[in-house]
Amino acid sequence: MKPVFIGILLLLLLMFIFQACALFSSNGTEQQACQVISRGKDFEVRYYPEATMATITASASTYKELGNTGFRKLAGYIFGGNQQNQQIAMTAPVHMEMTDTASSMSFVMPARYSRDQLPAPVNPEVVIKSVPAEYVAVISFGGFASDKKINRYSERLRKALEKQGIQYAGNFRYLGYNPPFQLIGRRNEIMVHITAPSEKMQ
After folding, report:
1. Strand partners of residue 105
2. Rounded Cα gap, residues 80 and 123, in angstroms
3. CATH number of the domain that 155 lies in?
4. pLDDT for 69-86, tens place per residue?
5. How many distinct structural domains can be found in the chain?
6. 93 contacts: CB under 8 Å, gap ≥ 6
7. Spatial separation of the C-alpha atoms in residues 167 and 113, rounded to whole Å
8. The pTM is what?
9. Residue 126, phi then psi, degrees to nearest 5
10. Most Cβ neighbours (<10 Å): which of 55, 157, 160, 182?
11. Given phi > 0 = left and psi -120 to 50 = alpha, else beta, which region is 165?
């Protein structure tokens, strides 16, 4: 039994080291710039300046469908699937917006690039675009995301905003911060556009 026990311990140790490395790697990933305006019990208000994103649109209406198709196409772009065969660093978060008719996934481009400095995608489904600055309300949750969790926290954020009389517009969007193989320390968020915050929200 001893060799089996030792083997299990070594396997668990390797898994722990792998997950620690994954957590360290994700913590070191460049994140989209934003300013936290206020933190409340239920949600956070942030200001996001204008950003450049690589985006695909799809007919997928669920998190799983969009994740499977969208991530592969966008990863292809940043890993050299562009007219300059240029490698572009991965950033966080990945933006996803799911509706019954059309959905989108976006990678935020590193801040050092302007839109004009980015190479053109080889895949015509990948579109480089500028996203205007906005104020958003954000709610966070841990673990692995799913359509059920996304819907639950979107509804929780909606009720919290309505309770405080804060106007919101557009679809609720999902933000994912971690690679799929990371098991611990996962971070997920739901955000929605709001009007500029009043003094009581700051």
Report:
1. 56, 96
2. 11
3. 3.20.80.10
4. 899 999 999 999 999 999
5. 1
6. 31, 32, 108, 175, 176, 177, 189
7. 33
8. 0.83
9. -90, 125
10. 157
11. left
